[in-house]
Specification:
2 copies of one chain form a homodimer. Chain A is α/β, with parallel strands linked by helices. The first copy, chain A, is built from 9 helices and 15 strands. In chain A, the strands form 4 sheets. In chain A, strands 4-3-5-15-6 form a 5-stranded mixed sheet, with helices on one face. In chain A, strand 1 (49-51) and strand 2 (56-58) form a beta hairpin. The structure holds a DNA duplex.
DNA sequence: CTTATTGTTGTGTATATTGCGACAATCATT
DNA sequence: AATGATTGTCGCAATATACACAACAATAAG
């Protein structure tokens, strides 16, 4: 018998004051409970019980062992029960914040699947591209696409990498020509994410694993929304640096084509942020798990 | 695999970040560690790890489970180690107090056997028939023969029953006659344990399981030492109420004979008393265990 | 004294656990 | 890009284990 099972039967023997009583309690034969505590005693090299064929009493060592066994067993049971319940007790409201385009293109399917699996969960999904304070606004989970970040007030859990690439419409490239290298970007119309005050350069790896450099760009359009940039690129208005998930559809049919494929943008990461609680709510835990799984599966398929 | 073993392998998988690494660590094949965590997941109905064939990372639930597993495993290991060590770490000084005659007749053999088994223990055995304060005098173990007692400042552990009986020398009985019943004891010379101020009666059961009554006695000798009473009885000076272990030798050869065997004295109990500590010293624990075993064995043989 | 129950041990059988091999998927290196 | 090594997973056969049943000695109850 395994160690934990032996400890269990041992405590039962002590509780019921006999091997037979414990055997009845367990629905097993007396042999196994006898062998269990014998094996325990042999393994420990200590006599745990004084048996007088009719009365069974723990020795002093056995009593000390009994106490600690009880603690361990209840700890194990508590743990197993708590984990099991964390599945069934997935219910209640779940407030989620996520970026706009990611929300519509990827998260929507995840949320729908999750709702199907867990009917007792009410979801409140707020999509916004502005930076928010998850604690202030009372979100259980905040999803962010960014470079690796760390925070003390929030727990950051990286989920999946978000690859990006440079792309443009064939019409634009025909009109303006394919840039020979990244330095040539400064002579092109670039479509940049963010606000006009922000970066005037793109940081690109020169080939796979190459050195990371900043290349000056000329921006014709700024937007804090990826779909706007995508639309502009589709309209032949310039070169955009966009996450792959945003343009998978238009890449496959050639409406947009990769630009400078040897220059890899810094990889972003989708992270889940949540308040630093000692014990995460089961609902949050399970949702993040499901999300991570779903996204990994999708990433593997594409 | 058993639950605890599965938890062990699971934590190893998380620690080493892979099934193969954990398998190497355990010296087992990859199949078993795979099956272990799969069985765990199935038993819990929860996915604990996200596997991407090349990278293994715990899910949020898995992480919570991992924490609690670690606690449990270290608790189990600590417990087992502590119990195992309680055998080998039996050493140091052990101050024991015991009644005089019990000490010489029974305890001496126990102590000798214990010393042979545990060479690292130094024993200080103080025999005295006066009542002492075990805490005050710094005894680790105090042995008492008395009626069932309870105490708040001390832990009382009953070890073995101490049967007693009435006896006298054949010469005395020939001279004074065998008492017809317990009431006749008042016309005999009785040899009483204790001090002159103490009891002037013996409490006897009238037959097996009979009612308990006090019978007045006439005391010719008081002593706080059983051997004195025994010597007096042997010299034909009266009837004594003595513990069986004190007179086993002289009963078997007829030098003393039972008197009024239908009247059973109240049964005394040998108890071990020790200071109420939260964690009993291993030495104390093992000594009391050994003592209990030894005495039970002797009692069974006689 | 009898009877029923206890702890213990031996034995056969059924279940489960293990290791090996194969497979597909992935990362590292060329 | 392609190869090689390594990963997680799964099927299969050999083995090991755990279990119940039965028999025995010892004890408590009627």
């Amino acid at each position: 018998m395994d160690k934990l099972g032996a400890m269990r039967t041992f405590t039962l023997v002590v509780d019921h004051g006999g091997f037979a009583a414990a055997a009845r309690e367990l629905g097993l034969s007396r042999s196994v409970v006898n062998r269990a505590v014998m094996g325990l005693e042999q393994s420990l090299g200590v006599q745990l019980l004084t048996r007088s064929t009719r009365k069974v009493a723990p020795t002093e060592t056995g009593l000390a062992f009994y106490d600690r066994c009880s603690q361990i067993i209840s700890a194990v049971d508590d743990t197993l029960r708590s984990v099991r319940e964390s599945v069934t007790s997935v219910s209640g409201r779940l407030r989620i914040n996520a970026p706009m385009s990611f929300g519509t293109l990827r998260l929507a399917a995840c949320v729908a699947a999750f709702m199907a699996d867990y009917p007792d969960v009410h979801i409140e999904l707020v999509l916004s591209d502005r930076a928010i304070d998850p604690i202030e606004e009372g979100f259980d989970i905040t999803l962010r696409i960014s470079e690796p970040l760390s925070s003390t007030s929030l727990v950051v859990r990286p989920l999946v990498p978000i690859p990006r690439l440079l792309c443009a419409a064939p019409a634009y490239l025909k009109r303006r020509g394919m840039p020979a290298n990244a330095a040539a970007l400064v002579d092109h119309d670039c479509l940049q994410y963010g606000y006009s005050g922000s970066q005037h350069y793109w940081r690109l790896h020169n080939g796979q694993g190459g050195t990371l450099r900043s290349f000056k760009i000329a921006c014709r359009l700024w937007s804090n929304n990826g779909e706007v940039l995508k639309a502009a690129a589709l309209a032949g208005q310039g070169i955009a640096l966009l996450p792959k998930f945003l343009i998978d559809d238009v890449l496959s049919d050639g409406t947009l084509v990769p630009v400078l494929p040897d220059y890899l943008p810094t990889q972003l990461t989708l992270s889940a942020l949540y308040p630093r609680h000692r014990h995460l709510s089961a609902t949050t835990r399970v949702f993040v798990d499901a999300l991570s799984d779903h996204l990994s599966m999708v990433a593997a398929k594409v």
